[in-house]
Design a protein that fits this description.
Length: 721
């Protein structure tokens, strides 16, 4: 009989094994989707292997103790993944300690996904020539047949519009045949526009260094506006000329309309833009284009790393330090790691570009593991002047201090534009009772609720639930409630008060929630229909608007005081990125950072644009704490609706893990509940990541956990707060 070993669609580590079904009458191969009965419900599964055996069903049952069931149906004719990607899926599961099926689900677009919620590709009916030998054909029929013969694709729909039921007659007679084919995306050609300026000497030098180096990985380090993107485009064009494919990865937020325009001008119809704004069928069509091996440049966000490239010769990660390259749900992979893996397979180069490379990358580059290539200055020559100014002292003069207020007024008078960054949305993050000190908490999470004046509600930023703003304290009944702290809505109020005639665009996830909200607001500001752009970190990146001459950064002290091992690095990145938005045109730019911590090394180095000095100092702290990149971290998270169960599971794992001595176990620590789910975490710290992964895997296999406990693993977590 024929047996198929399949992965069931349920993505939990407890089911991370194949199940066997009888597949006698089916044609199938590795990497196709099938429908099976599992636990008395019908579900989708993904085929790992197909084997022939001499055993009978009875013998199989006797040997294994399982009754064999038949496959219900097969969904795909051919494997959805080529060998490279199938192996990558298995490797990814190992590297991220995630269920294998979750990796395949992440890799495949929705329409091809091995899970029940997948959608089926749109199919259209096409007409092909049939057998016309010995048939009597009238002139109009001949016209139709000629048309079908001469045209590449004829859709049934189009032909019927023109010739009506004659088509049906011809099909019935066998003179034409009808086939189902998937709809393909038709791209409108755009005239290629070439670069308007010659490359700078620094760019030329950097390009030849990239071409010549023997090393596969290049760290391209250069300040914002130093012409890195131009280098990516040159390299991509080269790949295309050689009939290869190129992939340029960008963080979601910096895939601005400007960026899209820039690559479309350069590559016309050969560019594929692949991002989360595409609907399922658009994604699928672009996926097919890449699979067909078209010579294309793909510009895309994280998930573009899974496209089925045939002959890839370049991968670029722009802003390679950006946290959005890490997926924060299962499987918790980092796009950079996958890029390095695929580059090995395709023997192609990887360019990691940034003004503030992540520490792992820069450390490897300085050690010579990666090639370090620098663009020393901005194309326009000048970096903006950065100053630290005093914040406002609260109620009377607000959050925006005197210096920044004056500077904004000056820029408004000159008809220039201002960007203000505050990395916190809402009106105020905490509502507190003055009488008893209690804060309004979310009932489903152990978190304070934020005040949102726009919608007139309290909102939980962890789970999203809202309730009306109370008028009395929920603990003591006092009416003396105050808003503690400042969010973007509150700054908007202050701006309206201080600059009554200024036009303001506020951009945060509340104002950009609707489709294209992000683009519409940015467009508005880019066209200078508004004067001040106020927003969270989503405005810190990618924005290239020449009329912006002042950038103000608020609330950075809170970011610097966080105790996470990467919080200072992240604050520094944010400062440098945000500062980079200023003075990109002809007028010199200015940046003001409001802070009471002027002596902090991150601020001191940020104002002088000295990434390298910051790197050296911060690395010392990393070394002291033996934090990454000196040692590796793995987080294990235990969740359950029962507080005790989550806690017990974490304890049990800690005991098991502590039996080995080569790494350190930190915790368990109670992370509180989010959306009524209790969370406990263990941290494993050590020098041998592979060994650490093995310990974690073994621990999960050995543990006897309650059925309502879920374990998830985060290898190289970006945050351990
Ligand atoms: P980065 O990616 O480092 O931020 P970009 O490639 O976006 O830098 O370049 C910054 C700006 O300078 C862009 O507006 C770009 O069009 C322009 N630019 C890039 N290279 C040159 C050049 N050689 N000559 C003139 N302008 C350039
Ligand atoms: Zn109270
Ligand atoms: Zn909540």
């Amino acid at each position: 009989m024929k047996l198929a070993n399949v992965w069931i669609e349920h993505r939990t580590l407890k089911l991370n094994q194949t199940f066997t079904y009888r597949a006698d009458s089916f044609l199938l191969e590795r990497g196709v989707r099938v429908r099976v009965n599992f636990n008395n419900t019908s579900c989708i599964a993904f085929v790992q292997s197909v084997i022939e055996t001499d055993e009978t069903t009875q013998e199989y049952t006797d040997r294994t103790g399982y009754a064999l069931k038949n496959l219900e149906s097969v969904l795909d004719e051919h494997s959805l993944l080529n060998d490279e990607l199938f192996d990558l899926g298995l490797q990814l599961a190992k590297d991220t300690v995630a269920p294998i099926i979750s990796c395949f689900q992440t890799m495949l677009p929705k329409m091809l996904n091995p899970r029940s919620s997948a959608r089926v590709p749109v199919r259209e009916l096409w007409i092909l020539p049939g057998d016309t030998d010995g048939c009597k054909i009238n002139p109009i029929q001949q016209e139709i047949i000629d048309r079908v013969n001469n045209q590449d694709r004829c859709s049934l729909h189009d032909l019927k519009e023109e010739y009506g039921s004659r088509i049906d007659t011809l099909v019935k007679k066998g003179l034409l045949t009808r086939v189902k084919k998937e709809v393909r995306y038709h791209v409108k050609p755009i005239a290629n526009v070439l670069r308007k300026y010659p490359l700078s000497d620094d760019q030329i030098k950097a390009l030849s260094a990239i071409r010549e180096t023997e090393k596969e990985v290049i760290c391209l380090y250069g300040p914002t506006g130093s012409g890195k993107t131009e280098i990516y485009l040159e390299l991509a064009e080269e790949a295309m000329r050689n009939h290869h494919q190129a992939l340029i990865l960008v963080p979601e937020i910096s895939l601005t309309p400007q960026m899209v325009q820039r690559v479309q001008n350069r590559f016309g119809q050969d560019v594929i833009i692949y991002h989360s704004g595409l609907n399922d069928s658009e994604r699928y069509q672009q996926y097919q284009r890449v699979k067909d091996g078209e010579n294309t440049v793909v510009v895309g966000t994280r998930s573009a790393i899974w496209l089925p490239f045939q002959n890839l010769s370049l991968i670029v990660l722009d802003e390679e330090h950006d946290n959005s390259y890490k997926q924060d749900s299962l499987p918790r992979y980092h796009c950079r790691d996958v890029a390095l893996w695929r580059a090995k397979y395709h023997h192609c180069k990887v360019v990691l570009g940034s003004a503030t490379p992540c520490f792992e990358t820069y450390a490897r580059a300085t050690k010579g593991v990666y090639e370090l290539i620098e663009l020393p200055t901005r194309v326009s020559g000048v970096l903006p002047k950065v100053r630290i100014t005093a914040p406002g002292n609260g109620y009377k003069n607000g959050t925006i201090g005197k210096d920044l207020t004056d500077a904004i007024q000056l820029r408004l008078d000159l008809h220039q534009q201002v960007v203000l960054l505050l990395n916190r949305r809402g009106y105020s993050p905490i509502m507190q009772c003055i009488s008893c000190g209690a804060t309004e908490q979310c009932t489903d999470c152990d978190r304070p609720m934020s005040v949102h004046k726009d919608e007139n509600v309290l909102k939980c930023h962890s789970c999203g639930i809202t309730r009306s703003i109370p008028t009395v304290c929920s603990v003591c009944g006092s009416t003396m409630l105050r808003n503690l702290g400042v969010g973007t809505q509150r700054i908007e109020e202050e701006l309206n008060r201080k600059f009554p005639t200024a036009r303001i665009t506020r951009m945060d996830s509340d104002t950009t929630a609707r489709k294209n909200g992000h683009r519409i607001l940015l467009d508005q500001f880019a066209k200078h229909e508004t004067d001040i752009l106020l927003g969270t970190q989503m405005i810190a990146k990618g924005l290239d608007i020449p009329a912006v001459t002042l950038v103000g950064i608020l609330g950075i002290d809170t970011a610097l005081m966080r105790t996470d091992y990467r919080s200072v690095e992240e604050a520094f990145d944010l400062l440098v990125q945000a500062a980079g938005r200023s003075g990109r045109g002809d007028v010199e730019g200015e940046v003001m950072i409001q802070s009471k911590m002027a002596d902090h090394y991150a601020l001191k180095t940020a104002i002088t644009h000295e990434y390298k000095r910051f790197f050296v100092t911060e690395m010392n702290y990393r070394k002291l704490g033996q934090n990454p990149p000196y040692q590796y971290l793995i987080a294990m998270i235990f969740t359950s609706s029962q507080q005790q169960h989550a806690c017990d599971a974490a304890e049990e794992a800690a005991i098991l893990l502590r039996k080995q001595e080569s790494c350190k176990i930190l915790g368990p620590s109670d992370l509180g509940k989010i959306a009524r789910v209790y969370r406990n975490r263990l941290l494993i710290k050590g020098r041998d990541l592979e060994e650490m992964r093995n310990y974690v895997r073994m621990t999960i296999e050995t543990m006897q956990i309650q059925s309502d406990v879920n374990i998830s693993v985060d290898v190289n977590p970006l945050s351990i707060l």
